[in-house]
Write a structure and sequence with these properties.
This protein has 621 residues and is mainly β. It is built from one helix and 45 strands. The chain is elongated and about 120 Å long. The N and C termini lie far apart (116 Å).
Length: 621
């Protein structure tokens, strides 16, 4: 053997092995592995695309899992017979770390090959946050919001349950900071709105939850002209109808822009007519009760109904009853017009019976005149007369009776809105004068009634006025025949009385909170202070109270109108002077809530120099 040949062969083998060792030490394998270039791409909140390559044609499958959970497998085994593999994972959890590995089985083989485990992290789900309405004016508002991914922008806005209006689609786009300006808004209106954004490159928009904002009034007080004793109502479209008594007769005006402007007043009945109330039915037909007062009250009054079926453009009148005294106009949701009144049943005593009649043809003709109550004694006289309509058209009326030295309250009800079948319920606290009944029907149809018998008493009927709970004392604080109350959206009862004292019951009148005195501080000696309180509550439970007060009037009897609000009946806003009159006496404030949530207030003023009267209207912010 040639020993030199063996020696050089050995040296050559050692050199080859050394070179292979160097290549492996530098990270470059001598051969390509069966699976390589494994990657997770196009990762979103719920999807990811897994790609890899194989040295031989093979099929494709991916196993993926969170933490130590059992792997989920994609369907086997597409694509197949390829060296470039791509599988999309769907239904992933946003903002989550995933482990995965891929598996391929070479074409014609029965042995699959797995990659090592890799990871990816899904992005957070697309979200909308920080939605706000800013820079709100009487006709514009800027809506802003942010998204966690770039997206486009659009806003939907509407009043009440109206169909939403949408801003133009869809600018700004490809941004995370969004701002859209709304224009052409109504003043003094509560708007609902939500925003919508679709991620850039996406196909499914996302909406925010609904929010609200309130546009301010375009201007302050609206002086409707000479007159007094105003009555107003808001129809289902937000149109304000108002009537009042002027020297030349009963006037009517209308606002279609939330009280910013009113139509030119028109006369619906000539003097000596006086406005007594205004109502609308479900079709927004307008009904104004007009009373004619002759010189001799013993002969009673004539009640006339002024009706409009064309939105207040024209009115027709019909005589309902003559020789009556107090009267009530009650319009049912169905459009049936009920007229309850007090009259002389025996032809001698001026005011000793309660009767009711109704119309099913929009007030053109009245039928079924029926006696609801007749005085058992000739000396009886009706003091006050109140009424209300239930949610299904039930009729509720109550009145106080003076019988010699006694006073008591009677309450009658018609369950079908037509017939008063049962005798009235007698509500009386012995040895006291019971008068000034007030009725409120809640959304469930329960009749709630308060009256004054030295203190305020409360009773409730849960069977449509057939029976009542025993009278309970609202407060031992003395009454003054001016109590008013409302029932909130959750059944809470809010009551104001004796100047401007407030109390609340959360258990349907069983117990009442300690009264809060909301009157202005520092009443000067000889001044009247707070009187004639009024109260309303909206669908969200916001309480608004208005009253007359001369505390800051400069002289006794120079009243201004004040308003105070509360979201819960426990804390109240500072009192706000709405009228700010100089040299005038304000009277009869009334707060009004529209079906769309706007709040208004109206009253009349009397000049201290010439006794001229004017009617005013404003919004409550």
């Amino acid at each position: 053997m040639d020993n030199s040949k063996c020696f050089w062969a050995l040296i050559q083998c050692i050199a080859i092995l050394s070179l292979a060792s160097v290549l492996r030490a530098n990270g470059q394998p001598a051969t390509t592995p069966p699976i390589f270039n494994v990657a997770a791409t196009n990762v979103t909140a719920t999807t990811a695309t897994i790609t890899w390559s194989t040295t031989k044609h093979a099929d494709s499958q991916v196993a993926y899992f969170i933490g130590s959970a059992k792997p989920k497998w994609t369907p086997c085994c597409s694509p197949s017979n390829t060296t470039s593999h791509s599988v999309t994972l769907r239904g992933l959890t946003p903002n989550t770390g995933y482990n995965f590995f891929v598996e391929s089985m070479p074409t014609g083989s029965s042995t699959p090959i797995d990659s090592t485990t890799s990871t990816f992290h899904t992005s957070a789900a697309f979200s909308i946050s920080n939605v706000a309405a800013t820079n709100i004016t009487e006709s514009t508002a800027i809506i802003t919001w942010t998204t966690n991914q770039k997206a486009d922008s659009q806003v939907a806005y509407f009043i009440g349950s109206a169909k939403p209006k949408w801003t133009a689609c869809c600018r700004p786009s490809n941004t995370t900071a969004h701002s859209v300006t709304l224009t052409g808004l109504m003043p003094n209106a509560v708007y609902n709105f939500f925003v919508e954004s679709m991620p850039t490159g996406g196909s499914k928009p996302i909406d925010s939850t609904s929010s609200t904002f309130h546009t301010p009034s375009a201007k302050g007080l609206e002086d409707l002209g000479a007159g007094s004793n105003p009555y107003a109502v808001v129809d289902s479209n937000g149109v304000i109808d108002i009537t009042w008594t002027a020297t030349n007769g009963v006037m009517f005006a209308q606002s279609k822009d939330n009280g910013v402007t009113f139509s030119t007043p028109k006369m619906v009945a000539a003097s000596p007519a006086g406005a007594q109330s205004i109502q609308v039915d479900a079709k927004n037909n307008i009904f104004i009760l007009v009373g004619y007062n002759p010189a001799s009250m013993l002969n009673g009054n004539t009640a006339v109904l002024a009706r409009s079926t064309d939105g207040g453009r024209t009115f027709s009148t019909v005589i309902v009853k003559q020789n009556i005294f107090a009267s009530l106009l009650l319009v049912q949701p169905s459009g049936v017009v009920d007229f309850a009144y007090t009259t002389s049943e025996d032809g001698i005593d001026p005011d000793d019976a309660v009767r009711e009649t109704h119309s099913t043809d929009g007030g053109q003709t009245f039928v079924n005149d029926q006696l609801v109550w007749g005085a058992p004694h000739s000396a009886d006289a009706i003091l006050q007369f109140r009424g209300a309509v239930g949610p299904q058209g039930q009729l509720y009326v109550a009145w106080a009776v003076q019988d010699d030295l006694d006073c008591f309250v009677e309450a009658a009800a018609s369950q079908d809105g037509v017939n008063f079948k049962n005798p009235p319920t007698f509500l009386w606290v012995p040895d006291l004068c019971n008068d000034n009944p007030e009725i409120v029907v809640d959304t469930a149809g329960n009749e709630n009634i308060t009256w004054d018998a030295g203190t305020i008493y409360f009773s409730r009927s849960q069977d449509q006025g057939q029976t009542f709970s025993p009278p309970s004392i609202v407060s031992t604080f003395g009454g003054d025949d001016t109590q008013k109350f409302v029932v909130g959206p959750n059944g809470e009862i809010d009551l104001v009385f004796a100047g401007v004292n407030f109390t609340q019951s959360l258990d349907h009148g069983v117990t009442w909170s300690t009264p809060l005195n909301l009157a202005l501080p520092n009443l000067p000696p000889g001044f009247v202070g707070a009187q004639n309180p009024q109260i309303v509550v909206d669908a969200n439970g916001k309480i608004t109270i208005a009253w007359e007060d001369d505390t800051n009037g400069g002289s006794p009897g120079y009243f201004d109108i004040y308003v105070i609000t509360s979201a819960d009946g426990r804390t109240f806003s500072p009192a706000k002077n709405i009228s700010n009159t100089t040299g005038a006496f304000t009277s009869a404030p009334t707060v009004l809530i529209s079906p769309l949530g706007e709040q208004y207030i109206y009253w009349y003023e009397t000049s201290s120099t010439n006794a001229a009267t004017s009617v005013f209207f404003d919004s409550v912010q």
